[in-house]
Fold this protein.
Amino acid sequence: MKYLIDFIALALLYAFAFFPRWRKKGRDRLLVNTLMYAYLSCVLYFTLMPVLCALPYLLDHPYTPMNLVPFIDVSLGRGDYLRQIALNILMTVPFGFLYPLTRGGKAKCGQTVLLCLLMSLGIELLQPLLSGGRSSDITDLITNGTGGLLGYGLFALFRPVTDRILGFLRKNETP
């Protein structure tokens, strides 16, 4: 039920704020922006949700500061660190691919990776507040930035394909 409230809020935000604005910009913009919105909603689900139900209890538990020792789990052999690294990289590959598309292909690599890192930092700083048992880690920032960089590389590699698909959507737009 807690997650349902967040998903209803996200759906209403999309339906009444974003969809009408993006639809006016054409099917290509609507597709790209909707994909980015769906992706960011999934990131919220896996990293921060439930959010709205957690707000009243935001300060009810101690804040655990971020671990600032990079790859400490790797060096100490703790837990399933390889899985965590892979998942953190995979989580932000779509951001690196989709963000430049939301900017009409004009976003630079550095800008894309910086925004990916800022998104990751925001998540890492909010996780201990919203979900009392979760902690934040500098390794997550590094691996998320790596994922954003890989995603941008995929965007650059597949740009001719995405330009053709989006051009087709623009060309077949009904006035």
About this structure: The mean pLDDT is 92. The CA atoms of residues 72 and 139 lie 8 Å apart.
